[in-house]
Design goal:
Strand order of the largest sheet: 1-2-3
CATH topology of the largest domain: 2,3-Dihydroxybiphenyl 1,2-Dioxygenase, domain 1
Order of helices and strands: HHHEEEEHEE
Distance between the termini: 45 Å
Number of helices: 4
Helix content: 25-40%
Oligomer: single chain
Shape: globular
Structural class: alpha+beta
Strand content: 15-25%
Length: 222
């Protein structure tokens, strides 16, 4: 049986709901101000573009927060029903550490594999939900303090491809910058337009090292 303090969990979940509602209300207020008739009056095209971008970002934030709100409400419902602390998919008990870190959790995650690199001073942990083992998420733990900026402040996405050289060549032909070329025949990095890093890995290990990739320098940050 999951070990938790019901009153403490309920208080945390309700506090999180209040936080989400506060942010959602601010987004709605900004949207209403932008919809006024004066908003489009004598406005420079650059200002209009910035306003459109801000509206799109607000809409994205609203969607994410609404999804999180629904999950918090589901956790409160399961708490009331006596089902809190068990996965809604498998019925397995959710580890106490996960519930402590994320009280609204309604699913378990499983560690698939772990890799520690003493020279690079980092640990990689691959985790996935039991119901979707083919879609793992790679978590990176850097042993030393580091300032995270740009697209790496939340981590990065990684994909595996059959031929890292061919894939990068295809990207280049479509105007995409290879920020970190696959010099080792195994790994490359690109960035999305909004600065999120994407790692490209060669499936099955490294390809034989070859030019022009072996001599290609990094472009920007990755």
């Amino acid at each position: 049986m999951p070990d938790y303090d019901r009153n403490e969990v309920e208080a945390k979940l309700k506090a999180r709901l209040e936080e989400i509602d506060t942010v959602l209300n601010k987004i709605v207020v900004r949207g209403e101000e932008g919809d006024s008739e004066l908003a489009d009056y004598d406005q420079h095209p650059g200002d209009q573009a910035n306003e459109t971008l801000e509206q799109e970002m607000d809409e994205t934030k609203r969607t994410i927060l609404q999804d999180e709100r629904a999950q918090v409400q589901l956790a409160l419902q399961r708490l009331e029903e006596g089902k809190y602390g068990y996965s809604i998919e498998s019925g397995e008990e959710i580890p106490a550490d996960r519930l402590k870190a994320m009280p609204e959790a309604v699913r378990t995650v499983e560690e698939q594999r772990r890799y520690e690199n003493e020279k690079g001073r980092f640990t990689l942990v691959f985790v996935a939900a039991p119901e979707s083992p083919d879609a793992p998420v790679e978590l990176t733990y850097n042993w030393d303090p580091e300032a995270y900026t740009g697209g790496r402040n939340f981590g990065h996405l990684a994909i595996e491809v059959d031929n890292v050289y061919g894939y990068c060549e295809k990207l280049q032909k479509n105007g995409i910058t290879i920020n970190r070329p696959p010099r080792d025949g195994r790994m490359a990095f690109i960035k999305t337009p909004d600065g999120i890093s994407i790692e490209i890995l060669n499936k099955g290990g490294a390809q034989p090292i070859k030019e022009p990739w072996a001599s290609m320098s990094n472009t920007g940050t990755w």
